[in-house]
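We give the entry.
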Amino acid sequence: MNVVVLHQARALAALGHSVEILTRRSSPDVPSDRTLDDGLVLRFLDAGPAHPLAKGEHESVIDEFSARLDDLGPYDVLHSHHWFSGMAALPVARRRGIPHVQSFHSIAADPTTPLSEGERPESPGRLAGEARLAQESDAIVAISVAEGHTVADRLGGDADRIIVVPPGVDAELFHPWTGSRRGSGYVVAAARLQPLKGLDLAIEAVAAVPADIRPDLVVAGEASTDFEGYVDELRALADERGIAETVHFIGPQSRPDLAALLRESRLVLVPSHSETYGLVALEASASGVPVIASASGGLREAVVDGETGIVLDSRDPSDWGDALARVLRDPDLAGRLAVAGRVRAEALSWPESAAALSACYRALVGDRTEDDAP
């Protein structure tokens, strides 16, 4: 979500819009605002304690964030990128008579329904809050067709107000490796370390690859504060499967470091239980690396099965191990997937994504102006 927000904001500013990114102050050391580009300002609002909060604790500071937001502006459009921010921004937009746009990036499932592991509401008000935002916002911007269907089916959003704006990718930063790869190399799983991302399956899949071609597994990402002990569980699983020495947890990576990590890998694994899109899959394609992904949500759109990677409608480690082995043993197949992935990624840019957002905003502002005309 952070990557999408930042890159779309920068591209909108480049189009001539004045853009402000508003977020909660989580450290006393950050300034009140920071200019990122011409026309783009990042503002830190005082809402709750000036230190990081677990995701489930943010609900308690919604009202305070809303009050700080109401001191700012004027704005033509408020676009929220999480249900917390949406619940803070929607009443401000209504008081000011301006459009409110909502993006979710992830949507909670009702805990009474059968769920994949890890897909749970993080705080008590989430289910009702997301439904209200889907039904009352002037537009919903979904990152994939799959997410758009979820907004309509799960949250009751009006399909006529749902607009799909796919993400872009920085094809200059994420570019193919030009060197030679030796030996089995390594594969990458890059995600926040929490059960929803299915990193246990990544470990099981690599363990299922025949030993003579088995690559190392590099796990990149920050541990989630909501799931203490999860990293220890993953380490224990690697030990049980006899690959502890070749599974490497390297923590969160800067964007340049992630790009270098991806381009030098043999494959990228995205075994998430649920994804609204799966941006890392597109970044891997831009890096000229095949992707093996689960058939969940927007990953079916981020990865073209058989063309830019392999999409598996299975969570059986042996199926994943077979798919890994097939690509690792067949350099021609790996090359075809890599080239097609790069070509597709080059056609998806952040300026194109921002242009679609701009069109959405202009339509809403135009509609609101006409509605308010005497």
Summary: Residues 350-372 form the longest helix (23 residues). The chain is about 40% helix and 15% strand. Residues 132 and 285 are 36 Å apart (CA to CA).
